[in-house]
Each structure stands twice: as structure tokens, then as C-alpha cells.
Design brief:
Shape: elongated
Low-confidence stretches: 260-303
Mean pLDDT: 88
Number of helices: 18
Distance between the termini: 38 Å
Number of strands: 7
Strand order of the largest sheet: 1-3-2-4-5-6-7
Radius of gyration: 24 Å
Helix content: 40-55%
Largest sheet: 7 strands, mixed
Order of helices and strands: EEHEHEHEHHHHHEHEHHHHHHHHH
Structural class: alpha/beta
């Protein structure tokens, strides 16, 4: 195990020091122990390096809010270990990190296995909403519901000790780092880049996985030029835990046959022994590339430029994709130019200024809306304030302060609006 510098990831090495390197990445809310059952067999062939996400397991709580940053930290860790080339297998967000590395470090990643992985995980709104719930209620609601998302009912009923282990893994994760990982998944989308993944790739998915379903796995296989699909029946999201033998066999076969046969700059060569190919699911039919998201009012052609692009990005991050999509869908010849103006002026020129962070801008915005009695906008920006990191207690303090300077009646109405929104946004799903 490692002494972890702030911008590295905590890691553990197992297996012969002179063997080729295989890196294993864990899922959100788990630790490197989710790969324990694979280690005895994998270390017969590889030097296995496992790592923990920030704030997971015993790793320091140095949050990273993008998959690219997590990939950079992993590479800094591997560089410090003198690792030049490696195979990579990752589960869920661990798979996202592997895809990122295959795109940005193609000369170092020799082959790839993506387990329970997606080119885009759900919606940005759902991940940011999860951050709001955690910021208000802590990780306990997420921990209690983790088993039903990670395991099939049959497995959970037969393995109560593993279920409890899973709950405790989530509960002991640093909440700030978990929220940062949610933000990383909210902004992650490599659908348009999959064609640039140039290494042999195995995509593994559980047939019962509802978190990253088989449609996501097939999208990966359709987009990556040299990819195969392995469907593990009767298994949910944490396939390496629920079906350890099947995953171990798939990994050994894939990395034994797909590993490049010429040594890299550091002299790490492929394993000489080969194994028969795994029984893989047939390739999916070709899929059309995802449609581009049309931004802003679709009226006459106009050059919105960098200001518009910056504005629509911030507007979506603060107000949510669902709200912006509704606004854009409702735009017409009468309102479209006004929405374009808002995106450029309010979001592209004001909210993007570096002088104030988003939390502070939310405080200013709430105060102004209370003062003017704009209750519909107040509801919208109460949601935005929660997404920008304000807690319900901090919003209460803002509204108490407005009672002094904006008037008690205005604050009274504002409390009613904010209370309703906070209840809606911070109540964990049943």
C-alpha cells in the first residue's frame, strides 16, 4: 500500500514485480476490495495495481470533480511507479477512467476491459440531484439503497454479509468526494469519441444491471472499433463481486489474447501464453450515432460564439438539463431571441465571471429575487442554490437576512417557496 501525495491516488500492488501490469479501477462508493476475488488468479500472470478513488477506503479526501482529473491522478500515480504500459479493467466509474485513458494515453494502454460501464451515465440532472440529497442527508440513504442497485435480489438474500459490507463501504466514503464523483459522472459523455478508442476492448455487463443496462454496453461495442461484448446472466451492477469466477475467466482470456505482442518503451511485453477466446455475445447491430444536442433557439442562423457556448454550459449546470430543455422546446419566433439573450448576457457574461464563485452568486441571486418578489424565479434559483453547494441551513440564513433588509412579508413568502423546493429536492427516494 502507498503513502499518498495529494494529487496521486492510493494504490495497492500484488503479483510479480517483473510481470506486465494490469490496473483495476473500482466503482463509485466501493474500494479496491471489490476485486479481491479476482486477485489470486490474476496475479499468476500480472502485476496487479488497484487504486481507490479519493475519499474511498483509506484514501485521502482530495476531491476530483471530473473523470479527466481522476485519470490524470491515476497516471501521476503510475508514472511515479515507473509504469509505462499497462492493461486496464474498470467497473462503472472505474470503466469511465479507463475509457478516458484509452482516449488520452493510447500509447500506454495496451488493452481495455469495461465492466458495467457506459459512454454516458444517466443524466446530468440525476447525478447533481444525488449530490443535493447527500449534502442534506449524508450518505446513509445512498448506502441503504446501494444493495438493490448493485446486486440481484437472489444474491442479496443469499449473501447478507456481502450486502452489509457494501453498505459499510458507502457509509465510510467521504461525502464531499462522493459528491465530486457525482459531478464527474454528470459531466462525462464520450459517445462522440468512442471511435478513437484504438485498443482491443472487452465490454462486460450483467444481464440484470439497471444502473448501466445492456443498451449502454451495446452502445460501447457499437462505437469502439475493436470491441466485444460479454453478457453475464443473472447478475446486476457489481458483476466482479456477484460472479467473481466468470469475471476472472473473462479478464484472463481477454488480456491474454488481446495484449499487444511487442514490448513498450519500458520493456513490458505481452504474456506469452494464450487462452481460447471467451464465449461472447454476438455483436450488436450498427447504431446511428447519438443525435447532436441543439443548443438555444433554432431560428435564423447566427454566430453565438464562445459567449453563447460558455453560457449554455453554465446554464445547464446550474439550472439543470431538464429546465433548459423545456425552455428551448418552448422557444419560438417570439421568445427565441430573448432566450438567446439570456444565455449570452446572464449566463455567458455574468455567471462565468471569475470574481465570485457559484455559491456566492446564488446567495446574491436569492436575495435579489426575494427583494423583488419574483417567486417563480426564486423557486428555480433555490434549486440552483442547492446544486451550487448551499445547504438548506445556509439558504435559511440567507432568507433570515433578507427579512431585515427586504422586509418581513417578502421573507415570509420566500420561506414558503424555499421550504417547498427544499423538501422536494432533498427527500431521498424511497
Amino acid at each position: 500500500m502507498s503513502e499518498t501525495p495529494p494529487r496521486h491516488l492510493q494504490y495497492r500492488c500484488d503479483g510479480p514485480e517483473d510481470a506486465p501490469v494490469l490496473v483495476l479501477g473500482a466503482a463509485l462508493g466501493t474500494t479496491w476490495h471489490m476485486w479481491d476475488r479476482q486477485i489470486p488468479e490474476l496475479t499468476r500472470h500480472w502485476r496487479v495495481i488497484r487504486f481507490d478513488l479519493p475519499g474511498h477506503g483509506g484514501s485521502p479526501a482530495h476531491a476530483a470533480s471530473s473523470v479527466a482529473e481522476l485519470a490524470d491522478r491515476l497516471m501521476a500515480t503510475l508514472d511515479a511507479l515507473g509504469v509505462d504500459r499497462f492493461g486496464y479493467a474498470g467497473c462503472s466509474i472505474g470503466g469511465a477512467i479507463g475509457t478516458q485513458l484509452a482516449l488520452t494515453r493510447p500509447h500506454q494502454v495496451t488493452s481495455l476491459a469495461l465492466v458495467s460501464t457506459s459512454p454516458r451515465y444517466g443524466t446530468a440532472d440525476s447525478w447533481r440531484q444525488r449530490g443535493v440529497v447527500i449534502r442534506t442527508n449524508g450518505l446513509d440513504p445512498i448506502a441503504r439503497t446501494a444493495p438493490e442497485h448493485w446486486f440481484t435480489q437472489a444474491f442479496a438474500g443469499a449473501q447478507p454479509a456481502i450486502v452489509e459490507w457494501a453498505v459499510q463501504m458507502v457509509r465510510t466514503t467521504d461525502p464531499g468526494c462522493y459528491i465530486a464523483s457525482c459531478e464527474a459522472l454528470a459531466s462525462y459523455d464520450v459517445r462522440s469519441s468512442l471511435g478513437r478508442v484504438g485498443v482491443p476492448t472487452l465490454v462486460v455487463v450483467g444481464s440484470e444491471d439497471q444502473v448501466t443496462p445492456t443498451t449502454d454496453a451495446r452502445a460501447l461495442v457499437a462505437g469502439i472499433p475493436d470491441a466485444s461484448l460479454a453478457l453475464v446472466p443473472g447478475t446486476s451492477h457489481l458483476v466482479p463481486v456477484e460472479q467473481p469466477s466468470a469475471v476472472t475467466e473473462l479478464l484472463i482470456r481477454h488480456f491474454s489474447t488481446a495484449w499487444h505482442d511487442k514490448p513498450g518503451p519500458g520493456g513490458q511485453a505481452a504474456i506469452g501464453a494464450s487462452a481460447p477466446k471467451p464465449q461472447l455475445a454476438p455483436p450488436p447491430p450498427p447504431q446511428a450515432p447519438p443525435a447532436a444536442i441543439e443548443s438555444g433557439f433554432s431560428g435564423p442562423e447566427q454566430d453565438r460564439g464562445a459567449t453563447y457556448e460558455a453560457g449554455i454550459k453554465v446554464r445547464r449546470e446550474v439550472l439543470g438539463d431538464a429546465h433548459v430543455d423545456r425552455v428551448e422546446a418552448a422557444a419560438d419566433d417570439f421568445t427565441g431571441e430573448f432566450q438567446d439573450f439570456l444565455t449570452r448576457y446572464a449566463w455567458g457574461e455574468t455567471w462565468t465571471r471569475p470574481g465570485l464563485d457559484r455559491r456566492t452568486r446564488s446567495i446574491v441571486t436569492l436575495t435579489a429575487l426575494v427583494a423583488r418578489g419574483h417567486h417563480d424565479e426564486l423557486a428555480l434559483h433555490t434549486r440552483a442554490a442547492l446544486r451550487n453547494g448551499l445547504t438548506p441551513m445556509e439558504i435559511k440564513e440567507v432568507l433570515l437576512h433578507t427579512a431585515v433588509y427586504c422586509g418581513v412579508p417578502a421573507a415570509n413568502s420566500a420561506f414558503a417557496v424555499a421550504q417547498r423546493v427544499i423538501r422536494e429536492e432533498t427527500t431521498p427516494e424511497a
